[in-house]
Amino acid sequence: MVSQEQRTALIQAAIEVRQQAYAPYSNYPVGAALLMEDGTIVTGVNVENSSYGLTICAERTAVTTAITAGYRKILAVAVATDNAGSPCGACRQVLTEFARDVPVYLVDGAGNGRDTTLYALLPDHFGPEHLH
Ligand code: THU
Q: Would you tell me which CATH number, out of the four given (3.40.140.10, 2.40.50.140, 3.30.70.120, 1.10.760.10), belongs to the domain 4-121?
């Protein structure tokens, strides 16, 4: 279970880290925050590139940072954008590798938005359980 305090902290972390986004081409900075099993929050931002297709989304930046730090299980996700936008399909799939039907908080810069879940965003997903 994710407490109200954890939800608030996760959303705040996504909003704050969004300032570090490198998005000079789209002007659509994104901040992502992941709640890990021990309560740690791991963040990420989108990192764009002049070769546009090499852009990395905020959610996947956060996932690679979390995995590098040794984490393997995500308990909740917050994504901050200009308009409480939804994670792209690639990020939904990558999150699914390390999370079950966890809460996903989609917020704008003021913290307004909507709560959903990973499986609501990615129904009938293909996950690691299908390979075991
Ligand atoms: N972006 C993300 O960081 N996460 C998403 O899930 C959607 C898209 C980024 C990629 C690009 O830098 C910008 O938003 C516009 O597509």
A: 3.40.140.10
